[in-house]
Amino acid sequence: MKLKLLELTDDKARILFEGGGNTYIDALATELIRDPQVDVAQRKQAFRFTDPELVVTTVGGRSPILAVTDAAKRLSGYAGELLQQIESLETA
Length: 92
Hints:
Oligomer: single chain
Number of strands: 4
Order of helices and strands: EEHEEH
Low-confidence stretches: none
């Protein structure tokens, strides 16, 4: 998956996920909206066969890129915790 920054301002980012699937972007948008300084986190897709775009707007001076980075790190942490739990089941 390749990211392409389409727009960036102090409070808005539009990121194209080339070759990306909707599942990850939907999870990322859900995690982003949990941040109280994120106003909008939405996946957009012009047509079913086009690459999806993530639109993020923030409030309170929060950088939209930093918000995306933090949300992605939290998702990665959740996946790591899940893997540890699954591995512990295999050894039980």
